[in-house]
Design goal:
The chain starts with a helix and ends in a 7-residue tail after the last helix. By secondary structure, it is α/β, with parallel strands linked by helices. It has helices spanning 2-17, 30-36, 50-54, 71-78, 93-104, 115-121; strands at 25-28, 43-46, 62-63, 85-88, 109-112. The relative contact order is 0.22. The longest helix is centred in the N-terminal third of the chain and has 16 residues, at 2-17. The chain has one domain (24-120): Rhodanese-like domain (Oxidized Rhodanese, domain 1), CATH 3.40.250.10. It has six helices and five strands. Strand 4, helix 5 (93-104) and strand 5 form a beta-alpha-beta unit. 43% of the residues lie in helices and 14% in strands. The protein has a five-stranded parallel beta sheet with strand order 1-5-4-2-3. This is Rhodanese domain-containing protein. Residues 38-128 form the Rhodanese domain. It holds the Pfam family Rhodanese. GO terms for molecular function: thiosulfate-cyanide sulfurtransferase activity.
């Protein structure tokens, strides 16, 4: 009986140890995002297409398209895991996907909740 219990315990612990890391990121309002990205160690990431990025973006942001198949690999070769990542897309949908991917890979992620559209509506600084 004790061997059966030990085997069952081993099976259950193995199942739980194989789970994917949980996505853990924070969504910020425009005002909070604007304050957050002022810190020197924050990496700014635009996850829209290159065409969208070229039309205007938050100053200092690098562009890696989250819809590109190699998004995770490009992020790993561009970003530093020990520094926080502040990311955004156009409306907030793609940025949540990117935030999920990056947080599961060990990045500390903050995303702009309503995206670049909200940033522009608040008349925040952009560059071309």
């Amino acid at each position: 009986m004790s061997q059966l219990f030990a085997g069952f315990f081993l099976l259950i612990s193995t199942l739980f140890s194989c789970q994917q890391p949980k996505a853990d990121f924070k969504s910020l309002s425009v005002a909070d995002f604007d304050s957050f990205i002022k810190a020197d160690d924050v990496q700014r990431l635009d996850v829209r297409t290159l065409a969208e990025y070229s039309e205007g973006h938050i100053p200092g942001a690098v562009n890696i398209n989250v819809l590109d198949d190699s998004f995770a690999a490009m992020a790993d070769s561009t970003l530093q895991k020990e520094r926080p990542v502040a990311l955004y897309c156009r409306s907030g949908k793609r940025s949540k996907k990117a935030a999920e991917i990056l947080s599961k890979r060990g990045y500390k992620v903050y995303e702009l909740d309503k995206g670049f559209n909200a940033w522009q509506q608040e008349a925040k600084e952009i560059e071309h």
